[in-house]
Amino acid sequence: MKYYLISGEASGDLHGSHLIKALKKVDSKATFRAWGGDLMEREGAFLVKHYRELAFMGFWEVISHLPSILNNIALCKKDIINYNPEVIIYIDYPGFNLRIAEWAKKKKFKNHYYISPQVWAWKENRVHKMKKNLDALYVILPFEKTFFENEHQFSVHYVGHPLLDYIPKHPKNNTFCKDHTIISGKPIIALLPGSRIQEIKKMLPLFVKVAKHFSSYQFVIAGAPGISKDQYNVFIVTTSMKIVYNSTYDLLQHSTAALVTSGTATLETALFGVPQLVCYRSSTLSYWIAKRIIKLKFISLVNLILNRSAVIELIQDSLTEKSLRHHLKDLLKTSNTKKIEKEYLALKTILGKGGASSKTAQLIFDKLRKSL
User: Contact at 8 Å (CB) between 74 and 35?
Assistant: First the structure.
């Protein structure tokens, strides 16, 4: 069967690549066309467009790039018509994907959504259109099933979080420091400033300033796919900071702590057991709008899943050089790292054993086979 996948950021590329791998196991004749990244392409998907051309963060950023977004939507519709897939699989990226899904439903395509839009956080009114336009929804957070089924009478499949498929199996790289000329024996603080250039511009300069006050540690940046070293070097030119690509999990395995821009990376960091500070800053206008429409107590997945403040979140005005220095110094204390270890253990208990990719692949394939 022919599968058409649409993702718009690094995490979607990761999850999409594993879904493709799982689909190939249940469907030996599967072919794939995708909007994604290097990982999906490596699994055999023909890449229509790379996510680095699609990822716009914040309200103002989206508005300023509206012509490009509209052109991409038109291109996507045309490409779907030409490919004529048995199913379209949407991976998060709701602003784009839900528009395509509404159009695709009218064109009689099968719509399956893997990794739900976070409508429990904002734009809850989207649920009505999701019920109308989706043939199946696969959710990855335990509270999402309750939200959709109890509050909106929308039957969904809870498949578990896909990170549990990758992180426990990630092998220990004993040559990591040597491979990247990182000083062996000197404790590492990982910097995860985001996967989009807008995030990096906001976060990395602050991280660099704070790093200068922790001389007994070495700070290492997890380079995002599609972001060149030159783009990082603008901010770290006066330091000896290392940038490592395609090695974020190896970096986390070797880190004592991490400064993490809010997103999937907060959960990845937790599953590796690394104490973290969650940081977030956007444009003043974007933040002002978000404050008025987003109804969450927390922004990190760790705190959202646990439903309590397990990791410290420094957001917008509370994210300053002074506050970040203070909280990082506190985070590195042994007593605090032990508290975080207990919280992370509780998190893993809630999330369970995983298997999201294989469960979702089997469900998609079975549904398609029944409809033929």
Answer: no
